[in-house]
Structure formats: C-alpha cells, structure tokens
DNA sequence: GCGGATCAC
DNA sequence: TATGGTGATCCGC
C-alpha cells in the first residue's frame, strides 16, 4: 500500500487516549507521573506510521464512538428518573452484601519480584544494577533499572532501546525459570498445600489453618515464608495479606475490618480491579468513575445501566468483597487447547499453509501429550493490518489429534478466506474430552468423585485434608531440545512498577499494585492463565494434587442451574442475591453468592429489591443495544499450573 | 454454535 | 525493520 499520508506528522496530534493506548496494556495506571507522559510520547512517536499504530488508532476511535453512544444512552435512561430512589435500592443491595462479608479466612497473594529478571541476575551477577530486559522481539520482563526508563514487559525491543539506549537485552531461559518456580511454589505449598498458582510467579494461599496450627499471626507467617524463599532460592517475593500487594520485596496487610477495607478501596484505581482492563477503564472514566470509591457516587447510573456496566461486579469492588475460596487448578477445568504463531507478513498461500502446518504439528503434539481431544476446531488469523478473525467448525466426532488431520481442518477453514496477507495463524480445539481420565477410568475403577461433604465447606478444613495423591505422571513433554521460543506470557509483574518506581523508587514498602484482589477475606481467584507456562519445566506433577479432592467448584458463570443442592446439615442462611435459603455455613454461602451473581440473578435481585421507578423496562431492554460492558462476575479461578509446558522452537 | 472483544498473566 | 502466546469469558446474533 503505497498509500501516502500527506499530513505532516505534527498536523494530527494524537489524542490522549491513543497515546496512552500505545503505551501498552501493562501500563497499569495510576496517575502517570510526569515522566510517564514523556515516555508515552516517545513510544507513540516511535510507533507512528506503522501498521500497528494504525490499528491501535482504529481501535481507539471505535472505543471513542462507543463511549459517545453510552453517554447518550445514559442521558436518555436517566431522564425523569428519581435517582434518589434508585440509590436507595442500591443501598439495600450494598447492605446485604456487607452483611455477608466473610472475614474468617486469611488469604495471601504472593508474587515474585521481577521474576525472570531476578533469575537472570542469579545466573549472571554482572547484570546487577544494569538496565536489562529479557526476551526477543518483545520483552517479557525488564530489570528495575530498566523500568526507570519506562521499559516494560510487553514492549518491543526497538522501542525499549529508544527509551534506554544502554539497555542490555538477553534471551530467555525458560527452563531455569521453571526450575526456580517449582522451588518457590513448593515452599508456598508448605503453608497451603491447596494453594492456587497463577502463572509461574504468582499464587494465592489460604494460611488460616497454618497460622492456627503454628500459633503465628498472618504477618509472622508470611514474613517467615518470604524469608525462607529468600534463603532457599535467593529470590524475593512480595505478599499482600488481604487486599493488596507490595513490591519489591514488600509485604502488606490490610486490617480485617470492613471500614479499613472500604477506605483502602476508596482511592484505589478502578483499573486495579481484576477484570477491569484498558477498555473498561475508559468506559468507566466516561461516567466519572476513576476509583472504586467513585462507584458509590455513580451507583444510580450503574444500576440503571447494569447491562453496560455490571452493577454487582462494581459494588463488590467498591466494598472490597470477592471470593475467598482458594483451590488448585484442576484438569477438568480446562476448556481449550491451542497453538498460534506470529511471523513476518506472508501472502503466498503455499507459505501460509506451511505455517499452518507447523501450528498443526505443535497442537497435535500438545494434544497428544496432554491427552485431549475435542469437538470444535477454530482457526485464528491476524492480517498484516493486525485485524484478527476466527473461523470455527464443530464436528460430529472427536477431533483427531494427528497433525495431518488438524492441518486439513485448518486448511478447510482457511480456504474460503484466501487470499490473505497474514502475520499470525493459529488453531484451537474446544469442547474438550479428557482422554487421560477416560483411559484411567477404564483401566481402574477410579473414583474421582466427590464425596460431597457439605459440612466441610470451609477452606480451612479442606486445607487439612490435603490428600495429595499423586498420581499424575504425565510428564511429558519434554521438549526436545528445545529452545523455547514462544513467548510465554509476560507476567512478571508486568507493569506497574515502572511508573511507580519512577517516582517512588525509594520507599520500598508501599506501592501496591495491582489488585485489590483479596480484599478482606476475599481473594481474587487467580485467574487462569497460563501465562508463564513455558516456564515451568515439570509441571504437572507436583502441582496440584491430582486426584481431584472432589468438590466441584461452583462456576460463577452464567447460567448454571442454580444449586439445588439442598444438602443436609448446617444452618440456614439467606442469599442476598437470590433470596434463597441455603443450608450451609458462611463459607458455603459465599460460594453460593459468587455463583449466584449471574446475569439472571442480578436481574432478579434488582427487580426484587431495587425496583427502579420508571425504568422497569420489562423486557424491552433487550433491544436497547449498546455497547456492552460486563466484567467477569466472579473472575475465573485460576489454574496455574497444570498446563505449563515447554515449548520448543522450530 | 459462531465470531468479535476483552482480560489475565 | 520491528508490537507475543495460551486460555477464559461474555455478548449479540
């Protein structure tokens, strides 16, 4: 496209939102320091004119238009409505949520500091105090020194060098990260055998039992744990007891008091709430919400526009309430398996097929090693313009795991799309079937079933049980030779630090980042992610105790049938959302609430307890169209590890 | 069931 | 020169 752009670079100044967008998703936020705007400008300048830049510009424009529509819709919806009355309804909901806050569990969010960079430092002390990054075309992490220049994970190296000319770029050593990750996770498991790993450098622990049994305060317990990690691995880890986390090498505990929690949330950027990314941040900003505290002031609008904003989700953020159930990720939870690869743009169909074949080979290997098959196959491709498309097909039978068959299916899906100029191609299989479980159950009468013991719903108790039966041997993978080429997720605390360090590098203890995750007794369910999957070498096994300890976790997702589980025993509690009486303990109730916060449930709760005057909208709302905005209700649970695998290079 | 979006890591 | 990979969820149709 020899298209010329006739305008001088300066004639069309980038909008603020575009400049920020170009800075990358990992710019967690926080009022950008002065430096940050300067840095963003440099990044935007370096990107200017590229296809990537044009694509970001397009997305930014789309979002801007979407926001305009939302505001218009808001003005319409608010018209003639008694907002005070709507607020009263929301206040009732808040009261109910508050009444069921569970502060009984001590949840810790642990996060290794600049993980990849720290491991590299162990192996090469010469790097100490030097600005360096790890990665190939894109950095997966940056040392603290490099972050001072604005270098972040996820940043292309050519831009990183513009920000920091002396930057040292070294390649990744995933095998090492995997080894170290295992060591650290093993230490965490001493404190909570049921911990949930979130990527290879993060995790959530419920230390309630450990503290009791060892007569330790949460702070003592976590200090000790961090010290042991340091002694045994020379790596530092930050931890947040309750809500936030601090780093580097910091530790923070929030008082387990509703008021303290709300005060903490009040000034916390909405962007730090798990589930709120760059897009939702802008949408919320458009109606005056920048911090969790702002949610309260806008509750009437949020209630009237629940569909767009997700009222219950935001109220929980405002209150600092979230799930406090920590469980290791389980194999049954897997929903898809796939592979994709980026390359320099290709138009030649023969060459595109060659790439597709490589991807098919990789997927085949992963499916075979993991013991998976499925019923639906999805082709994904990204044009050289960065626009992404998917094409799927569901079969009558299980997808073959053979490379040639996957390749053939991929070609079939791709055919009607050609000709194309692509920069990425991928394949994914969903509607999975677990071949290992099947083989196992056939072989022996495995009893992987829940002995549903309702009474022991408390995580604390579960913890004790621990039955780790280790079965699993899977192991696999092994990379042959390998060199890991794929970028394993960035992670490493991705972001934030850069900006914070810029203005607060000194004070090591305070800088929270991320999330408001485990507020109070609520920990953010570690989300899924396989992020640094490539890093752990032998994953599975150790990881979670395979045998599913049972317990079927509640999915919190949309419409599952509402638990009719009326087990016996336990007191009766009323769910604030659905009003249902449950025979369970507080913990069980919390789980139910998570689960209950589905679209349907929210709707019921609102009409039942809110009842906005005019806007009762019956059902006509449906057509209201409009941009959608519904953050994950309860956040997914995290996996963490079972899927780490080793990638090889091709 | 499909495709686009958004998000986490 | 040049901007990742894996997996999940939600929504509209």
Automatic annotation (TrEMBL):
Region of interest (Disordered), residue spans: 1-33, 448-491, 505-571, 605-650
Biased composition (Polar residues): 538-547
Taxonomic superkingdom: Eukaryota
InterPro entries listed in its UniProt record: DNA/RNA_pol_sf (IPR043502), DNA_pol_Y-fam_lit_finger_sf (IPR036775), DNA_pol_Y-fam_little_finger (IPR017961), DNA_polymerase-Y (IPR050116), DNApol_IV (IPR022880), PolY_HhH_motif (IPR024728), Rev_trsase/Diguanyl_cyclase (IPR043128), UmuC (IPR001126)
CDD domains per UniProt: PolY_Pol_IV_kappa
UniProt cross-references to Pfam families, sorted A to Z: IMS (PF00817), IMS_C (PF11799), IMS_HHH (PF11798)
Enzyme class (EC, first level): transferase
Keyword match Chloroplast: no
All copies of domain UmuC, residue ranges: 107-277
Alphabetized UniProt keyword annotations: DNA damage, DNA repair, DNA replication, DNA-directed DNA polymerase, Magnesium, Metal-binding, Nucleotidyltransferase, Transferase
Keyword Metal-binding among record annotations: yes
EC number of the protein: 2.7.7.7
Biased segments, Low complexity type: 521-534, 609-620
Annotated family: Belongs to the DNA polymerase type-Y family.
Protein name: DNA polymerase kappa
Source organism: Lentinus tigrinus ALCF2SS1-6
């Amino acid at each position: 496209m020899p298209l010329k752009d006739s305008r001088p670079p300066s004639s069309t100044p980038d909008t603020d939102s575009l400049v920020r967008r170009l800075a990358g998703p990992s710019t967690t936020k926080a009022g950008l320091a002065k430096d940050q705007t300067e840095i963003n400008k440099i990044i935007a300048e370096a990107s200017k004119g590229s296809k990537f830049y044009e694509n970001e510009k397009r997305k930014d424009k789309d979002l801007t238009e979407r926001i305009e529509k939302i505001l218009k819709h808001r003005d319409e919806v608010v018209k003639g409505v008694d907002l005070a009355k709507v607020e009263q309804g929301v206040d009732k909901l808040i009261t109910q949520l508050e009444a069921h806050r569970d502060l009984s569990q001590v949840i810790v969010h642990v996060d290794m500091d600049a993980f990849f960079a720290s491991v590299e430092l162990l192996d090469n002390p010469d790097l100490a105090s030097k600005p360096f990054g790890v990665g190939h075309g894109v950095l997966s992490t940056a040392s603290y020194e490099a972050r001072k220049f604005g270098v972040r994970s996820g940043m292309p190296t050519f831009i990183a060098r513009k920000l920091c000319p002396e930057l040292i770029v070294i390649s990744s050593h995933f095998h090492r990260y995997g080894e170290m990750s295992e060591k650290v996770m093993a230490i965490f498991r001493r404190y909570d055998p049921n911990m949930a790993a979130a990527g290879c450098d993060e995790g959530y622990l419920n230390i309630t039992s450990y503290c009791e049994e060892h007569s330790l305060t949460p702070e003592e317990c976590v200090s000790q744990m961090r010290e042991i990690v340091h002694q045994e691995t020379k790596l530092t880890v930050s931890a947040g007891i309750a809500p936030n986390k601090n780093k580097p090498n910091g530790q923070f505990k929030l008082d387990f008091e509703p008021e303290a929690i709300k005060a903490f949330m009040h000034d916390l950027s909405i962007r730090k709430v798990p589930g709120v990314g760059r897009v939702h941040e802008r949408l919320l900003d458009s109606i005056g919400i920048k911090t969790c505290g702002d949610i309260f002031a806008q509750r009437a609008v949020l209630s009237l526009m629940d569909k767009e904003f997700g009222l219950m989700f935001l109220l929980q953020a405002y209150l600092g309430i979230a799930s406090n159930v920590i469980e290791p990720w389980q194999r049954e939870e897997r929903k898809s398996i796939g592979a994709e690869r980026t390359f320099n743009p290709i138009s030649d169909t023969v060459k595109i097929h060659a790439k597709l074949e490589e991807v098919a080979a990789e997927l085949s290997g992963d499916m075979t090693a993991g013991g998976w098959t499925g019923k639906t196959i999805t082709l994904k491709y990204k044009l050289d313009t960065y626009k992404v498309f998917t094409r799927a097909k569901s079969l009558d039978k299980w997808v073959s795991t053979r490379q040639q068959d996957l390749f053939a299916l991929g070609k079939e899906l791709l055919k009607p799309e050609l000709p194309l100029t692509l920069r990425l191609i991928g394949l994914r299989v969903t509607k999975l079937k677990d071949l290992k479980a099947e083989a196992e159950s056939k072989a022996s009468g495995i009893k992987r079933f829940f002995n549903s013991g309702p009474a022991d719903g408390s995580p604390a108790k579960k913890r004790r049980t621990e039955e780790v039966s280790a079965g699993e041997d899977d192991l696999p993978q092994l990379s042959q030779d390998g060199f890991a080429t794929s970028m394993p997720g960035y992670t490493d605390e991705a972001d934030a630090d850069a900006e914070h360090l810029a203005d607060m590098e000194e004070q090591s203890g305070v800088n929270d980042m991320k999330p408001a995750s485990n507020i109070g007794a609520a920990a953010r369910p570690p989300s899924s992610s396989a992020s640094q999957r490539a890093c752990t070498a032998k994953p599975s096994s150790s990881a979670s105790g395979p045998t599913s300890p049972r317990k079927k976790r509640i999915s919190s997702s949309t419409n599952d049938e509402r638990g009719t589980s009326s087990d016996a025993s336990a007191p009766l509690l009323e769910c604030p959302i659905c009003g249902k009486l449950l025979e369970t303990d507080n913990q069980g109730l919390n789980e139910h609430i998570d689960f209950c916060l589905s679209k349907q449930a929210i709707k019921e709760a609102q009409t039942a307890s809110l009842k906005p005057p005019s806007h009762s909208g019956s059902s006509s709302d449906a057509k209201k169209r409009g941009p959608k905005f519904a953050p994950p209700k309860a956040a997914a649970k995290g996996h963490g590890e079972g899927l780490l695998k080793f990638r090889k290079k091709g």
